[in-house]
Amino acid sequence: DAKTTQPNSMESNEEEPVHLPCNHSTISGTDYIHWYRQLPSQGPEYVIHGLTSNVNNRMASLAIAEDRKSSTLILHRATLRDAAVYYCILRDVDNYGQNFVFGPGTRLSVLP
Amino acid sequence: GAGVSQSPRYKVAKRGQDVALRCDPISGHVSLFWYQQALGQGPEFLTYFQNEAQLDKSGLPSDRFFAERPEGSVSTLKIQRTQQEDSAVYLCASSLTRQGAGNTIYFGEGSWLTVV
């Protein structure tokens, strides 16, 4: 799987939008972009994923650059419960090994 | 339950002791993964099962680590002769199908192992 780079940490105020960036300049055409987050003392949980088009779900939105070399996870209104480590992961459709490669992620702090 | 269940939630082992960590994946899920997460780090892949077959064990750090899934459902991760560097959270995850980059992977809450 291609590598991703994310800022180590970010801060946001409660009820404001948060834009979490991810760079993946070596992405291949068959790589899906996945976002997971990990709340304190819990296992990672799925947030959203996409291939080429922007995606929306009840948790967040995923904006994918036209050249796919970067993406942004958007939390529309941050809450205190959104404080977590956010992981951006690339997963190749041809990766039969199935392993999911996590980087260090971005630690998001939400201030009241 | 509806999610991935792991036990024990917390385990303190004396150095040299053997430990066994259990994972109950979501019912019907074909794929099962084990990850190791050290404090302050992201999860690192250990091994992958497709039903009962262990198709990838490239992440197991040494031959003291052994995983099995004999009937294609419950899995056990065994660590023999534990050492202090084995202290970590061990995460189990499952997904419905055997492949597909768009598949969602569901994680358990982890088993926290401390070796003293």
What does this entry show, briefly?
The complex is a heterodimer of chains A (112) and B (116). Chain A has strands at 9-13, 18-23, 31-38, 45-50, 55-56, 61-64, 70-75, 84-92, 106-111.
Determine the most extensive contact between two protein chains. Answer: A-B, 28 and 29 residues
Fraction of residues in H or I helices of chain B: under 10%
Large-scale geometry of chain A: globular
Rg calculated over all Cα atoms of chain A: 13 Å
Compute the average pLDDT of chain B. Answer: 93
Summarize the biggest pleated sheet of chain A. 5 strands, mixed
Q: What's the shape of chain B? A: globular
What fraction of residues of chain A sit in β-strands? over 45%
- Number of beta strands of chain A: 9
Q: Tell me the series of helices and strands of chain B, N- to C-terminal.
A: EEEEEEEEEEE
* Poorly predicted segments of chain A: none
> What amount of the residues of chain B lies in strands?
over 45%
* Distance, first to last CA of chain B: 32 Å
Unreliable residue runs of chain B? none
Q: Briefly note the structural class of the backbone of chain B.
A: mainly beta
Q: Count of helical segments of chain B? A: 0
